[in-house]
From TrEMBL:
The keyword Transcription does not apply. This is Twitching motility two-component system response regulator PilG. PANTHER family: PROTEIN PILG, STRESS RESPONSE REGULATOR PROTEIN 1. It comes from Marinobacterium iners DSM 11526. Residues 161-279 form the Response regulatory domain. InterPro entries: Bact_response_regulator (IPR050595), CheY-like_superfamily (IPR011006), Sig_transdc_resp-reg_receiver (IPR001789). The modification 4-aspartylphosphate is found at residue 212. GO terms for biological process: phosphorelay signal transduction system. CDD domains: REC_OmpR. The keyword Phosphoprotein applies. Keywords: Phosphoprotein, Two-component regulatory system.
Amino acid sequence: MKIGTLGFPSDQLKKLEKILSLSKRPLVLVSFDQNELPDLLLVFGPEHLQQPAVSELPQEYHSRVILVSKTRPNDSSLPHIKSPLISSRVIRTLEQYQPFEPSLSTPAAEPAERPLSEPDAIDLDVQAETENPFSKYDARIAEVQKLKDTAPEAVADASYAVLVVDDSHPMQQMLARELQQLDHPVNLDFADDGESALAKVADNHYDFIFLDIMMPGIDGFETCTRMRSMPALKKTPIIMLSSKTSPLDEVKGIMAGSSTYLTKPIEHAEFQKVIRRVSRWVSEFRK
């Protein structure tokens, strides 16, 4: 499906593009054109909803406009994705929709059922209500979701902010897919080299970091050493990644300050074992 955007900062647009590449369905970013509407339109921030480009859209397209913002819109019928963007949240929401087919006659509301909004996408399976064998639990799910909405700090504590530092985009995507299997949402950020990783950790908080050894510019050992020199990263788990199998590399990683070490190609069972141990430590540390 074609995904248009409006009002996205360049860094958020790049992050969104990486997230869409993780979907099992083809989700492609396109330039927003009122004369050739995309299947969905993501609008970053409620202030952009007032732009003529949005307010003058056909009535039948209104359900295709999804607001991306930190708080829920006053209009409960407006589909919403909460920011910061979390891969599982974005993908589950967008995959609720089918390609847009504009009517050839008088514009009217789409006869299909309303696509699930972002809260539904997080808690419900990706089936229509009529096909959902667990629909009898919908009231309880809604109640739980309401409790989540009134306790945003608790929801934030249940998610992990993760930085993946690797110059290989396929490796970034593979790690992202593995991290999606954690019990809590994962807010992913990416860096292609050590310098950009150092810039990101200086401006953002991460619960744990995956760090490749062989990268352009400064290598993973030097990057790890510099990270550990920052007071905020003294206890942050840093998992080093390398295609090398030399015991010396593992020793050098430990001396640089890494918490543990994974060898490429990543094995699913070993990765899940390590990441669950690390995530449990992070959860205990938060208490």
